[in-house]
Amino acid sequence: MAVPITAIYVPENDDWAVSVTGAGRSLTARAPGIIAARDQVDQFVEELGAEAKGATVVHLLNGSALEFTAAYMTARLTRPEQAPVEVPEPARPAESEAKAAGEPAAEPDAVPAQPAPKPDKKPKAKLTANIGDALETAKPTPSAPPATSSIKVAAGASTPAARA
């Protein structure tokens, strides 16, 4: 039967102290965060031997497995805040050359000249007719004559048309 292993986590400023007891041994370590402390516990379980590999490990924070799970999952699912990326502006060759020659630099916000349109391109056709005009002048398509139906009334039958 597998022996239960207990891992006790204690926060110490930014670090975590962890103590693992099981299989007649006790191991302790410090880690820089709760995730690193949990990884350290996994390493300690491997050190405890073959019988500890199938054992149940109970992780406790302040005596509560639920409190450990909440703190651990919060650390796993929280993204670290990243510092804003500052991208330096590249030095413009014209400015550095102008400064070296003692000339005033070109306008930095000037828009470069756009290329001329290609002469071989034809302009696109424009729609000038009104779609309503096209509908009014369109010839109606010939339609089939209305279908006539022949209804035979049996002798002696009473229908509204027969009564009239």
TrEMBL record:
Chain segments carrying region Disordered: 80-164
Bias kind Low complexity: ranges: 101-113, 137-150
Domain of life assignment: Bacteria
Protein name per Swiss-Prot or TrEMBL: Uncharacterized protein
